[in-house]
Amino acid sequence: MIRFECDYTTGAHPKILEALVNTNDEACPGYGVDLHCERARAMLRELCQAPEAGVHFLVGGTQANTTVIAAALRPHQGALCAETGHINTHETGAVEATGHKVLALPAENGKITARQIDRYCQDHYDNEAWEHMVQPGLVYLSQPTELGTVYTLAELEEISQTARRWKLPLFVDGARLAAGLAASDITLPDLARLCDAFYLGGTKAGLLFGEAVVIPNPNLNHDFRYLIKQHGGMLAKGRLLGVQFEAFLKDGLFLEIGRQEVDQALRIRNAFVENGYSLFVDSATNQQFPVLTNGDLAVLSSRYSFEVWAKVDQAHTAVRFCTSWSTTDEDVDALISSIQSLPGRSSGAAGAKGGSKL
Question: Predicted confidence band at 356 (pLDDT cuts at 50, 70, 90)?
Answer without folding.
Answer: very low
